[in-house]
Amino acid sequence: MLTSMIGAVEAGIIYAIMALGVYLSFRILDFPDLTVDGSFVTGAAVAATLIVSGVNPFVATILALIVGFLAGCITGLLHTAGKINALLSGILMMIALYSINLRIMGRSNVPLLNQKTIFTTIQEWGVKAGLDPAAAKTWGVFLSMALLTLLFKWFTDWFLQTEIGLAIRATGDNPRMIRSLSANTNLLIIIGLGLSNAMVAFSGALIAQYGSFADVGMGIGMIIIGLASVIIGEAVFGTKTIARTTLAVIGGSIIYRIVVSLALQAQFLETGDVKLITACIVIIALVAPQIVRQRQEKKRKEQRRQERAQLVAVSAGGKGESDVTVKSDL
């Protein structure tokens, strides 16, 4: 059970980078980008193919990030230059990436067993530093991935405070207003989608090395997982500031993985039920806050009604006393 929880937290931290990318497109740009399902696999495919070819895993992961950025930019071009609907642009790019990913890998699955990856390298560094091999594998990987995810969080917070980042936020909030200020919203959308898919592809590259394989079907439903992380994080931790929201996204990703891990402990559920569990988690995350808000609103209305009734009673009592006073004076 403890091992399962540690694994869930580790996976949640790595998937959090993907969730930050989804947060950029979904919340900041208000763009329903389905490219994520394809670019996640693209990152995994590029990293796995290069690692098998003998390329340094760190270099392979960086190249996966760059390819993901290009994929996002193409989606942005389809939407801005091609005037294609945002949802359709993402779907078209997702379908195109499926064939591109097969071309990159040359087959549907690339195993990374006995290959040198980022995680085996970190483990080797931990052993050289004097750690036990098991501790180096568990805590070395955990701490390094946590630092890497926090680095992406810091970059997101910093970028969204820059001039371009503020313009992208304004584009997502009110594109007409930002266009009236002579800003190039098309370029801002392309940059935003590029960065979003760069993070997604980077996460895909890490997950491929974490699971020791890249598969052409590993991106199915990834956008839903990303949205689940964002929604859960926002519901649990709040969204008062950008820094708090990005931290909430990371927390949401970890919570999502823990919930899935706990759900799979049930005897009647199987590994193939993960998508069903994901759908149920998203439904609960979407519906539960609305139910809570409705109850709070109902409670506030009842409180106001009681306060008004008390005021009317006090007013009526005061009037009665004044009448008595007037009569006694007479």
UniProtKB/TrEMBL annotation:
The portions of this protein that span the membrane are: 6-26, 58-78, 85-104, 139-160, 187-210, 216-237, 249-268, 274-292
Q: Which GO terms describe its cellular component?
A: plasma membrane
Q: CDD domains recorded for this chain?
A: TM_PBP1_branched-chain-AA_like (cd06574)
- Bias (Basic and acidic residues) occurs at 320-330
Q: Does the keyword Membrane apply?
A: yes
Per the UniProt entry, the signal peptide is: none
- Xref: InterPro entries: ABC_transp_permease
Topology term for the membrane: Multi-pass membrane protein
Q: Is the keyword Acetylation in the record? A: no
What subcellular locations does the record give? Cell membrane
For this entry, the protein name equals ABC transporter
Query: What is the originating organism of this protein?
Result: Parageobacillus genomosp. 1
